Amino acid sequence: MTDGTADSQAESTAGAVVLESSGGAAVLRVSGALDLALAPKLQQLVDRASRDHPRVLVIDLTDVDFLASAGMAVLVRTHRRHGATVAVRVVADNRLTLRPLELTRLTDELAVFPTLAAALAGR
After folding, report:
1. Could you give the CA distance from residue 31 to residue 13 in angstroms, rounded to a whole number?
2. If you average pLDDT over residues 22-45, what whole number do you get?
């Protein structure tokens, strides 16, 4: 990964995931529907990013317009697999992404932030 550049991208007909590097952090920007079609692509890029041992792994859901259980499963799996060795953070700022996480009480398990800047800073 190179700082500030998009290194990898995965797309489906309904959404996309872009892997970027920013100051020692891996940022996965997700857009569109994070559903059964896009979740495996997100998991692939999470696995790729984790091989570089970033200090922070951020999954940015700012541009997600539908968050399905398959997408939430990737968030939980990422947290449980990598949370002991890397700070896993999720950006969810609107009712389309934050509400499903609240209803399933995943906000109790995941580190959820309102903005990418807050997630990168850890506050």
Report:
1. 11
2. 95
